[in-house]
Design brief:
Blueprint (H helix, E strand, L loop, with lengths): L1 H22 L2 E6 L2 E7 L6 H5 L5 H6 L13 E5 L2 E7 L6 E3 L12 E7 L9 E2 L5 E4 L3 E5 L5 E5 L30 E6 L3 E8 L3 H11 L13 E4 L6 H14 L5 E4 L22 H10 L3 E6 L10 H4 L3 E6 L2 E4 L4 H14 L7 E4 L22 H22 L6 E3 L11 E3 L6 H14 L13 H12 L4 E4 L14 H13 L1 H14 L4 E3 L24 H4 L8 E3 L3 E3 L9 E4 L4 E4 L5 E4 L2 E4 L8 E4 L3 E4 L13 E7 L5 E7 L13 E9 L5 E5 L10 E8 L3
Parallel strand pairs: 6-7, 13-14, 13-21, 14-15, 15-18, 18-19, 19-20, 31-35
Antiparallel strand pairs: 1-2, 2-12, 3-4, 4-11, 5-8, 6-10, 8-9, 9-12, 10-11, 16-17, 22-23, 23-24, 24-29, 25-28, 26-27, 26-29, 30-31, 32-33, 33-34
The structure holds beta-D-galactopyranose.
């Protein structure tokens, strides 16, 4: 009897605990279309608190309300063994995107990942520069797990014994349809903490979910105009006069240049660093920086954060550093204000105050031998794991604050980021160098709330060089990183003219890029993003299904072939990069008419086209009614008060509208309302004549428009 009672009590407890656990999630509406779920006792240190991310409430409100996109009952959370087990439902026909900056895949359904900040090691396994714990579904919703821990993700790969849609077990010996990866109807996430908070974002479209995620992070970064110009990183050990000569060569050859990056050699010691100028190579840093600024060229400094025992700040920062080193350099605990005051105080005094415009923060991602180990103790008490997941965020945040305090925008480079980092003014780069994979990373950056540059370093052939330069120009940072090669844009004489044309095109497109970044900031729309976020795309891609790793999974019928070599750049452009050795490629045009960017000619509508663009061109297509504002071919970004002429290019025949963003391009005055969106409209009347309008400049707002002309690209 006793045993029966005990047994019954056990069953009851078990039932209760399963039921209870599902009910333990506390739901809160954060903004229209954004909900926070809380389970257990979430840690106070998470991705959002690490950077103090503040939701862009106005943008979230403007994004509109929407119903909760999933069934709350089907979202479950359990606590066991000091860990949180999360489960989110999946439909048969859903595809998943995101889970950070992947380099080889866009489709994530079926994956098993451990999200872990690391240098990308050639496999999409969760170890990457920005392993953002955010995913988006083709069904039009998103989920973000706000944890600064290594997270195990089963993205539709773990099958419950008693799930809603459990496939039948099969006999491998006799049944050819047996699969090692049977269909799963859930995303499961193991969080190594006794509780966590997570967010659910409504659509209705996948892009709406991405927008809401970015806005929860505070909205995308708005770079200074100069950040969207051209940048060259010079060879290590360059001297002040080498740098001046480099700038002169650009000017003499008529190549645009907005900022130069100094690589190791500007500091007296590197790996670990002193954060002090090397006086033999830079005898007069302040004079040098001034000379460069007078030429219209800003400077960006490479550094890693590890403090050399020979650094002037070593003794004072030591108490606020970890017990393990990186290359014998002390690791500042950037969660401690004391460490930040000393490190950033040094950068401010020695560099920012004399006019340095930004930084490239290297080596904050990993390769385990290149970082502190997980057994490291940090004086703040944050674990090595938490520090690893957030160090890139912290260095971005606090260096950006230095500039914010000066009311001066910056735009730099970093090798690690994470969820929470969308608003930070940094672009991710790495040492990997596969052109195709760089483009896939660019696509995935749009799902991860980060920016990525497919930097050009050097190439085996002139053809490859030109192909890489063409991609770089259609990316968040148009950069050559010649730290090791010493390459110049004109290093391959056979393609010098074509490379120059691309650099000039980048400058002409600045009004477009700048407006698209403003949309990233105010509306959360990633300026570079996957085709999967484009209207009319899903409908088109029922052909060529090759996915084989999810045989039993019927969703493959309805969802696209994975496309990882073409992307959307801003509101209207579809970019299809060419890779060395290829003369031809296919391009998938979503539904609706598309036009050639260079000629305005009709290219297709909801179809797969094959193109042979020649060496000079990177294939780019414009949506029907597309409006591309083009500026002059300047050598440097315009100054705050400089007025520029605009040529508004119009494609196709549909009435078009464009929101052109304008502000001073350099300060944070836009945060106080000193900006405007000018409405440009273009349509064709019955006789084919253009009807155009630009809304008047708002009184008291910055206005950098001079003469405006219109050009119908499609005849
Ligand atoms: C690497 C970095 C390169 C370059 C180099 C200089 O870690 O990824 O872009 O800066 O350091 O030593």
């Amino acid at each position: 009897m006793n045993r029966i009672v005990k047994y019954a009590a056990c069953i009851l407890l078990l039932l209760l605990s399963t039921r209870l656990s599902a009910q333990e999630i506390q739901w809160e509406t954060v903004a229209p279309g954004v909900w926070k779920g809380t389970i257990g006792k979430p840690e106070s240190y998470n991705l959002l608190t690490a950077v103090g991310a503040k939701p862009a409430l106005e943008g979230l409100k403007a994004a509109g309300d929407a119903a909760f996109p999933l069934s709350k009952e089907e979202i479950t959370a359990k606590l066991r063994d000091g860990k949180t087990y999360l489960r989110f439902p999946l439909d048969k026909k859903e595809q998943l995107y995101g889970f950070g900056l992947n380099f080889q895949t866009v489709h994530q359904r079926g994956k098993i990942l451990q999200l872990h900040v690391d240098h990308y090691g050639g496999k999409d396994n969760g170890r990457t520069h920005a392993p953002t714990p955010f995913y988006v579904s083709s069904n039009g919703y998103g989920v973000f797990v706000n944890s600064a821990r290594y997270l195990n993700i089963y993205a539709g790969s773990a099958v419950l014994r008693e799930g809603k849609n459990v496939p039948e077990a099969k006999d491998r010996n006799t049944d050819k349809s047996w699969s090692s990866r049977p269909y799963s109807d859930g995303v499961e996430i193991l969080v190594p903490a006794e509780g966590v908070e997570f967010y659910v974002f409504a659509g209705p479209k996948p892009l709406d979910a991405v927008r809401r995620y970015n806005l929860l992070n505070g909205g995308g970064v708005l770079p200074p105009r100069w950040g969207l110009g051209f940048t060259q990183r010079v060879k290590t050990l360059f001297t002040a006069s080498d740098v001046e000569a480099e700038a002169k060569a650009f000017a003499d050859k008529g190549f645009p240049l907005d900022f130069i990056g100094l690589e190791p050699g500007w500091q007296s010691k590197a790996y670990p660093c002193t954060f002090e100028w090397d006086k033999s190579r830079y005898p007069d840093p302040s004079g040098f920086v001034k000379t460069m600024l007078n030429k219209g060229i800003r400077l960006n400094l490479w550094s890693n954060p590890y403090v050399s025992p020979q650094a002037g700040i070593y003794n004072s920062i030591k108490p606020f550093t970890a017990d393990h080193t990186v290359w014998l350099g002390a690791v500042p605990d950037l969660t401690m204000p004391q460490a930040r005051d000393i490190l950033f105080g040094q950068l401010k005094k020695s560099q920012v105050d004399i006019g340095i415009s930004g930084y490239k923060f290297d080596e904050v991602d990993g390769y385990d031998h290149y970082l502190w180990p997980d057994v490291t103790l940090f004086p703040s008490g944050h674990s090595a794991e938490q520090m690893r997941q957030t160090y890139g965020l912290l260095i971005q945040k606090y260096s950006a604050d230095m500039y914010h305090e000066r009311n001066q925008r910056t735009y730099g480079l970093v090798r690690a980021s994470n969820g929470g980092g969308t608003a930070l003014p940094y672009v991710i780069y790495n040492d990997y160098y596969n052109h195709e994979d760089f483009i896939t990373a660019l696509i995935n950056s749009g799902f991860s709330g980060v920016l990525w540059t497919p930097e050009a370093r050097a190439s085996k052939t002139a053809e490859e060089w030109l192909r890489r330069m063409q991609s770089v120009v259609f990316s968040p940072m148009a950069m050559i990183n010649a730290w090791s090669s010493g390459t110049k844009p004109w290093s391959y004489p056979e393609v010098e003219k074509q490379v120059k044309d691309m650099a000039v095109l980048r400058m002409q497109m600045m009004p477009y890029w700048y407006s698209e970044f403003a949309k990233y900031h105010f509306q959360g729309i990633p300026p570079f993003r996957a085709m999967n976020l484009e209207d009319g795309y899903q409908a088109e891609v029922k052909k060529e299904i090759k996915t084989t790793n999810l045989e039993e999974n019927p969703y493959v019928e309805a969802v696209s072939k994975e496309v990882k070599d073409q992307y959307m750049a801003g509101e209207y452009l579809l970019v299809a990069p060419m890779f060395a050795g290829k003369q031809t490629r296919t391009v998938i045009l979503p539904k609706g008419k598309w036009f050639d960017f260079y000629t305005g000619e009709y290219a297709g509508d909801g179809q797969v086209i094959t193109v042979t663009p020649g060496l000079d061109k990177i294939p780019v297509y414009v949506k029907d009614g597309g409006i591309i504002p083009m500026g002059p071919a300047l050598m440097h970004a315009p100054k705050p008060s400089e007025k520029v002429d605009l040529e508004i290019r119009y494609y196709g025949s549909k009435p078009g509208k464009y929101m052109l963003y304008d502000d001073d391009g350099e300060t944070f005055n836009y945060e106080k309302g000193a900006y405007s969106f000018r409405t440009i409209t273009v349509s064709k009347d019955a006789g084919g004549k253009l009807k155009t309008a630009v809304s008047a400049a708002e009184k008291g707002k910055p206005n950098t428009l001079n003469k405006v002309s219109f050009r119908a690209m499609t005849k």
